[in-house]
Write a structure and sequence with these properties.
heterodimer; A: mainly alpha; about 75% helix; about 0% strand; elongated; B: alpha/beta; Rossmann fold; Alpha-Beta Plaits; 11 helices
Chain lengths: ~280, ~350
């Protein structure tokens, strides 16, 4: 066949900028959130139960001298609230990838991928919605903690630090959930895998128990568990007394967030290559 | 191949091999398919399920990459200039392209703005398209409340938000009831009236291809079989076709019975208790009587006997070598459908 010159007299439509694309993806997911607000509301039931149950059942822990020596004299509920804050982030973030699987199954993903929309804008737009929901949930958890008797000596600045750390942890988990969703393309696989990770991640950390009271091997694992870093930074913000390794922990969380985001963007490209 | 118009799409030697996942074996979905789509027309890709129509569409819309071969759409290479192709095309896949929780207007606005329209332009164009597609009254309703036909029309509207030069419609009426199908056909004909828009339509409905396509490519087993306008393709089959429905046929006996009647391209197919004999003849009036006499003489039971001018069914039979199986017709529109292999 001979080559045929195709005139391009009709100019191609303008391409939207990255921020516009991200903003429109965000707009879609925010409308979805508002029309299905029971989702984020239901995921708040769990932390409320945790705070009430754990707070009551383990209350006498706070009176033990060993506990006070390791974790301060604020009582168990004050120790627990930052842990529950980060647990909420984990449980909520585990669902982050489900929207992508819905989009793959319905066909909306094909629309994105056959449009001149940057892959990072698709990921960032939905991530931003998840982070906004996450901040609202975090504020509710902190409010419930306050009602349960916890007091935040760190003040407004400390609260903002705790929220920022929760957002960082949410970025890691939402992006990882997104990547796994795009690789597995299966809701059940995604949820089972998330649950499999979430529980050990919580218990092999200082979410519920100070390091000094943990068995040695658990304490060793907890030290390198990003959940511990997030919980201790959050606890530092709320109490105003930061851990010694605070900056290292921040650096670790930022690095993981960057890696997870890259993984998510690469997964969407890998998904397209598999079509 | 028409020389009068500049092609909107030129694809050469497209091959697509899907690697097997786990125990699933690999599939060679496209096996060296080439095609040229003239600009400003409705181009039909006709073939059974699994023939490679959707795979071709996915490659031409940059959704999927060919294993080998090249394609240029609206003047741009699908592999090297994917974003330029994406800006120039609209794609209505077999799936949905809208979010069911958003209203029709919200979906269209977002689709437009993502593709570069300003807020005011996106809103104006969305309203205009909703009007054009008869969805103005439903503009503020969530798409989840829409009927299948409304949803499909909204999908087409969404694909037109950024004023594409080439519109891909992948099986646009599959799953629609006859009324919605007729409405969709009217929309496609209306779009076809715009000279600047090229429409690429895949279908496994003969009637749809016959009515809508200016130019048609029959695809089978990942290869192009024959291309031309429906009228030219039918005219190329000289003479008339004869169809006899058979009851509990023995194909060998049937062939032997009609061997001396003067038929060409005799095909006898049997499925369960039903069967069909299809053949071509230069003189239908004498052939029908001769066929009846020959079958009677051989003691073969048969039902209806009909002679007609060639249809697209006959074109397909002539070039592919077998008929389609009417037992898998969708049951809604009554149009015959092919069966072969897995769903596309």
């Amino acid at each position: 066949m001979t080559t045929v010159a195709i005139p391009t007299t009709v100019s191609a439509p303008e391409r939207a900028g990255w921020f516009t694309q991200t903003g429109q993806v965000l707009r879609r997911w925010l409308i979805v959130t508002i029309r299905q607000v029971w989702g984020p509301v239901m995921s708040l039931v769990q932390p409320i139960i945790w705070i009430l149950l754990f707070g009551q059942v383990f209350r006498s822990l706070g009176d033990l001298p060993q506990f006070a020596a390791a974790a301060g004299t604020g009582g168990y509920i004050e120790y627990l609230v930052p842990g529950i804050l980060m647990m909420t982030v984990l449980y909520s973030g585990a669902w982050a990838g489900t929207g992508y699987i819905d989009d793959i199954n319905s066909g909306v993903m094909d629309q994105y991928l056959s449009s001149a929309i940057r892959r990072s804008a698709i990921i960032t737009g939905q991530l931003t919605q998840q982070l906004i929901v996450n901040v609202v949930q975090s504020l509710v958890v902190l409010g419930i903690g306050w009602l349960g008797g916890a007091r935040y000596a760190g003040g407004i600045g400390g609260l903002l630090v705790a929220l920022a750390v929760a957002t960082l942890l949410a970025t890691i988990f939402c992006c990882a959930s997104t990547a796994i969703a795009l690789i597995s393309r299966n809701q059940i696989a995604l949820i089972s895998l998330s649950q499999l990770i979430v529980l050990p991640a919580t218990f092999l950390s200082t979410t519920m128990m100070p390091s000094a009271l943990l068995p040695d091997w658990v304490a060793a694992v907890a030290r390198w568990n990003p959940m511990t870093w997030a919980v201790e930074l959050g606890r530092g913000g709320l109490s105003g007394e930061y851990p010694d390794a605070a900056w290292l922990q921040v650096a670790g969380l930022v690095a993981l967030a960057a890696l997870a985001f890259t993984w998510a963007v690469r997964s969407i490209r890998a998904y397209q290559r598999s079509i | 191949m028409p020389e009068s118009t500049t092609p909107a799409i030129v694809a050469e030697n497209l091959v697509k091999v899907y690697r097997g996942r786990g125990r699933k074996p690999g599939v060679r979905a496209l096996d060296g398919l080439s095609l040229t789509v003239p600009e400003g027309r409705v181009f039909g890709l006709l073939g059974p399920n699994g023939a490679g129509k959707s795979t071709t569409t996915k490659i031409l819309t940059t959704l999927s990459r060919p294993t080998s071969g090249t394609a240029r759409v609206a003047g741009h290479d699908v592999a090297r200039e994917a974003d330029a192709v994406r800006s120039a095309i609209g794609y209505v896949s077999q799936g949905a392209s809208t979010d069911p929780l958003l209203t029709a207007l919200e979906n269209l606005e977002i689709a437009g703005r993502m593709r570069g329209a300003s807020p005011s332009d996106a809103r104006a164009r969305a309203k205009r398209l909703l009007d054009d597609f008869g969805l103005a009254d439903a503009a503020a309703r969530p798409v989840s409340t829409f009927s299948g036909g409304m949803r499909r029309r909204l999908d087409v509207a969404a694909a037109l938000m950024h004023r594409p030069r080439v519109l891909f419609l992948d099986e646009p009426t599959t799953g629609l009831d006859p009324e919605a199908r007729a409405a969709m056909w009217a929309e496609i004909r209306r779009l076809a009236a715009h000279d600047s828009l090229t429409v690429v339509l895949t279908t496994h409905y003969m009637e749809e291809a016959d009515r809508l396509a200016d130019e048609l490519l029959i695809v089978n087993r990942g290869r192009a079989v024959v291309q031309g306008s429906p009228g030219d393709l039918k005219a190329a089959l000289h003479g008339d076709s004869v169809r006899v429905s058979l009851i509990e046929p023995d194909p060998v006996a049937v062939r032997a019975a009609v061997a001396r009647v003067g038929l060409r391209d005799v095909v006898v197919e049997a499925s369960g208790v039903d069967g069909v004999l299809v053949a071509r003849t230069d003189d239908a009036s004498s052939a029908v009587g001769a066929v009846i006499a020959a079958l009677d003489a051989a003691g073969i039971r048969f039902g209806q006997v009909a002679a007609s001018h060639p249809s697209l069914d006959d074109v397909y039979l002539h070039f592919v070598g077998h008929t389609f199986d009417p037992s898998t017709s969708s049951g809604t529109g009554g149009s015959p459908v092919f069966t072969e292999g897995e769903a596309a």
